């Protein structure tokens, strides 16, 4: 396969995780603050007139900063689902998140049909322990009622807090006749982004739960440990990994690819293209690799899965991924606040955009659910309010068109719980069986293999 192999341009790419309680975003960090450029913005006069009228005539005193913040939030709310305003407090929390530690509940959430929906609880967090499930709709956080105007940032901010403090969530679950009320105690959520073990002699297993500052380093350690155990094949589990740092995605990918191979390209509105190239070669050689994905695999996860799939370095197994193919830039403002702005889309080495479509597995394997567990709707990028379109597919066939996709996701089962044994996890079992079969065929008599090909 002959993809591009250019030298990569060095840029200050700050991996921004957004919020672990929400979706995790790829981002390009800029250290320079935004400057005001008012030339040609005649409509700002209207804003000034409204602000002046409110300060002069509103029935109660108003806080100018709150009015401005509200206006900026509203402005960004007219854009795509991943562009948003961050107050100084929220921006500081986001910066903490890149280290993989924060105070909160451990929920991944998204907006669907103007409702706050749980994408997935993070394992071993307060949210997971009390039994909150994917597909649950959050109606209230304490006394704060979620409305159509509630943004993802607003919801995250309400759920965040100091360790040991309590928060009550009121939940609607389709399978329950009445609303559910959960009281959770906030904890320090430490995300261990790399987990590894031997599934059985010779078959290694690595699970990536987030893409953080130290993920690539921890992955390298895990690979070295497994290589020391003489593995002959590997399962890389990216299920329910909502993404994270762009640099981390690049550094993770190159641990499975060869030096000089294209990992991902980023294209902005003006047509400028940045390419991220593997700057090292994998220590794994050519051992067989299975990558597990599902609808919870998003953003940075899709970059890694797409790169390994395009270069035929791994077989991707599972279900269609989330479909977030956009890049967010963090723009700090003069008062310590910031805006997260969608500025580009990314493309796999073969040039495909996964926006709204996701990564299609090479082998589709759906998780098996106990009969008593009811299926819940699955939230993907195409279900989010104000999602971006995919310019590589026609509007008529765009899977993001709600008239064409209404009800499609409800036919999909819930994501399988992680850390199960292969016997309990249908997708993991399939991966192990494929790797065993791979090895059996490799060790067969070459003449027999040749006869089978013919």
**Fraction in helix:** 25-40%
| DSSP strand tally | 20
Largest sheet: 6 strands, mixed
Uncertain parts: 2-32, 395-418
> What would you give as the CATH superfamily of the largest domain?
2-enoyl-CoA Hydratase, Chain A, domain 1
Taking all residues together, what is the mean pLDDT?
A: 81
CATH class of the largest domain: Alpha Beta
Protein described:
The chain is an alpha+beta fold and 454 residues long. The protein folds into 2 domains: 102-189, Pdz3 Domain, CATH 2.30.42; 192-327 and 344-439, 2-enoyl-CoA Hydratase, Chain A, domain 1, CATH 3.90.226.10. Helices cover 25% and strands 23% of the residues. The protein is built from 11 helices and 20 strands. It has helices at residues 44-57, 64-77, 88-97, 126-130, 152-159, 215-228, 246-253, 300-310, 402-405, 426-443, 446-453, and strands at residues 27-29, 84-86, 101-104, 107-112, 115-121, 137-141, 144-145, 166-172, 180-185, 187-190, 194-200, 203-208, 233-237, 262-268, 273-277, 289-293, 315-318, 326-332, 338-347, 363-364. Strands 1, 2, 14, 15, 18 and 19 form a 6-stranded mixed beta sheet that branches. The longest helix is centred in the C-terminal third of the chain and has 18 residues, at 426-443. The two termini are 23 Å apart.
Q: What distinguishing features does this structure have?
A:
Pdz3 Domain, 2-enoyl-CoA Hydratase, Chain A, domain 1, alpha+beta, 2 domains, 11 helices, 454 residues, six-stranded antiparallel sheet, 25% helix, six-stranded mixed sheet, 20 strands, globular, single chain
